Prior knowledge:
Blueprint: E1 15-18, E2 21-24, E3 30-34, H1 38-48, E4 53-57, H2 60-69, E5 75-79, H3 87-97, E6 102-107, H4 112-122, E7 126-129, H5 134-176, H6 178-198, H7 204-213, H8 223-230, H9 237-243, H10 246-255, H11 261-268, H12 282-301, H13 306-313, H14 319-323, E8 334-339, E9 349-350, E10 354-355, E11 361-363, H15 371-381, E12 390-395
Parallel strand pairs: 3-4, 3-5, 5-6, 6-7
Antiparallel strand pairs: 1-2, 8-12, 9-12, 10-11
Helix pairs in contact: 2-3, 3-4, 5-6, 6-7, 6-12, 7-11, 7-12, 10-11, 11-12, 12-13
Amino acid sequence: MPEVDPVDTPVVDDVVAVDDVVVGADERSRLLLVDDERAVVDGLRRLLGREYAVTTATSGAEALALMASGPQFDVIVSDMRMPEMDGAAFLARARAHTPDSARILLTGQTDITSAMAAVNNGAIFRFLAKPCDIVELRAALVAGVRQVQLTRAERELLDNTLTGSVQLLTDVLELAVPSIFARSRRITRIARHIAARVAPPSEAWSFELAARLAHIGCVALPAAVVERAGHRAKLTPAELDIWKTHPATAARLISSIPRLRTVAEMVRRQQQIETRVVMTDVVALGAATLRLSIDLDTRLALGDDLPKALAALARTHDQQLLRALLDFDRREAARSEAVSLVELQPEMVLEEALQSRSGTMILAAGTELTAVMLERLRNFANNGGCREPIRVRVPG
Length: 396
């Protein structure tokens, strides 16, 4: 690392000035310095402590322990030559802990081969040759912090875009075909249960999201076909051909959203029959999970208990996925109540069909109420109303 003077310097205040801007100590970028020479890291702490929240370590193992137990560091600076674990090996492992951190390696000319390996394995942001003066190091730190801030801002924008897009699609489904939307919520609960047992932890979210969006393509189908399918009426051959197009439509809608191409493919393949699934194939596993969730919901809605439903599905579904459902509980902790229209709340579940005063069904039994549904119901109440009281299950 740079040559530093180990002489004591003034203590850093809680509020410091950086580039003429007053910055609270807790708002400073976090910097991790790693070198096996204590005098070096202590000296750098004094030199950089007014600009950064500095943490030091004298070995790769100590630094990794700090990373595992504390907040994420913005920039990590490591010397190359250290006993037991050199800088290249440390930064490669640091990348697994905090992939967003900017990693800077300082090394001498004789370490050039090892430094090249570090760049390849540890995704090094900057490679600085020793001796490195403090001005050069400061410039690299500023660039590293800017890179990290840009990466995090882009991720936040993408996450917000993803969340908003998914919410928009589910709101459209709820408004257009409430009977199908209610079914989607039940299917999602089943898919979530399966995914928790068979999906890679990093991919479980995609299984659940595929279930939430599985029927979004219904918005493009004739209302009469969707209504009959939503109430499980027998479809004519022509209606069945129309119904079978909704997964492809849904996949086209979903694939236009960043990061959802895997989800789109799961949804597109939801009607494919695969009795044996390769568990390492995430798309195939997700599609099979979705199809099983849909089929199980249908069997349960027709009155089967869980063992009978699983037995009926054994011929057309993967056995490992079926075993994941052996402990599925279709019941949710809830109490039964009779309420008025104005007392309805999101997450209440209708125990019986909600009907207009003339006897027309508005929502089917088993529908879980949402804010959008309630808004529509209250608008409907102004034009004739519905039969009250309404019997619902209230989450416990």
